[in-house]
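Summary of Year 1 activities. Much of the first year was spent building the evaluation harness for sequence design. The harness presents a backbone, in tokenized form, and records the residue chosen at every position. We chose the following record to illustrate the format because it has been used consistently in internal testing since the harness was completed.
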């Protein structure tokens, strides 16, 4: 994985990142601390009071999808 996309996210951060990719109307509750951390890492941005994925956040989510399989097992 490229160094710029190598993030060691917590399970809560991964869940928040996966949830943010959905339309606002389809989202379940988000953990605020995890979202704040994603904002600090510039993986998410806030538009009209709602978090949205940044292009970097989308890349990290796609590249990290295989590592998410470990969380399921």
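For this record, the design step produced the sequence shown next.
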């Amino acid at each position: 994985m490229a160094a710029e996309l190598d993030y060691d996210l917590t399970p809560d951060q991964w869940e928040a990142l996966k949830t943010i990719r959905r339309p606002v109307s389809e989202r379940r509750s988000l953990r605020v601390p995890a979202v704040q951390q994603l904002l600090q890492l510039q993986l998410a941005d806030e538009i009209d009071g709602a978090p949205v994925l940044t292009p970097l956040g989308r890349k990290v989510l796609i590249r990290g999808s295989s590592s998410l399989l470990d969380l399921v097992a």
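Residues 55-72 form the longest helix (18 residues). Quantitative recovery figures across the full test set are reported in Table 2.
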